[in-house]
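Okay, can you check this protein?
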Amino acid sequence: MADKLQDYFPLIRTREEVLDEIRSKDNLRKMYEEWRPKQQMEFLDFCTGVRGVKMLYDSFFKEIMNPESAPERLNELLSVLLGKEVKIVQVLPNDSTRIADESSLLVMDIVVSLRDGSMANLEMQKIGYAFPGQRSACYCADLLLRQYKRVRSEKKKDVFSYRDIQTVYNIVLFEKSTREFHELQKNYIHRSRQRFDTDLDVNLLQEFIFVPLDIFKENTQNKSVDSELDAWLTFLAYDSPEKIIQLIEKYPRFKQMYDEIYVICRNMERVMGMFSKELQELDRNTVQYMIDDMQEEIIKQSDTIDSLKRLVEEQKKLLEQSGIVVDLI
């Protein structure tokens, strides 16, 4: 088996060719010089095949997985995640009201209507939000209400029935997952649906799928790609040439997607603009993550202080009952 990406993708240019073009144009040279040395190295590495392109980059992901230009790709990804064949019939405008301004941490947030009438929301998060369960539950409920309003308006009031409301799927892929997921290091896909403890057969219409891609990588680093699900997660999670070659050898249809990426990389002005946008998004992601992390730590410290206060008060009461007067300052 060949061991270089250039053996599979002849469009990949050499380091000298890339640098020559950057230096030949003032706007490209200026942009390149504004990046830190580590960022310059990362850019050169994926343009020259030293590393693969990260498919979790916002611009690349949207280009390759665009449901309007290549719906079959998103159909397949959703099908393997949901464990059943689905087909997108419409991409819906994402006009749901967010609980907070969350756009900075999202690579992608797309809502689609499926052939069976159900809805699916697919999110790709660079850095996982704090409280992922609570947030997803609120967003899923919002989507369910949105579907209810849409279906009810399409049907006359006297013929509308709740049986017309179909399941809403909330699917979240994390590049960097939150603490909760790392307590289950052997699990990289989590599926949930609401059920009664008596097995009462009533559909509550909300299902969740969480995929921590960082944990997927930890579990599959030295393993072969042996399933359709793992093939898609490998495509999304890995940028190592070895894994990319392993993937396209076993599942050749992914090669076309990489081909399209390397066509983009031939357009130096475009790919540098896309990379600059990624760096800006990463900076915002890091700041938001630090804010969320600090808020969570503050809450924990506040809970600890409240517990200590209660303990002191209890000890004070015990001492007073024993006839000892305590003056707490």
User: Anything to note?
Assistant: Residues 268-321 form the longest helix (54 residues). The chain is about 50% helix and 15% strand. The mean pLDDT is 84.
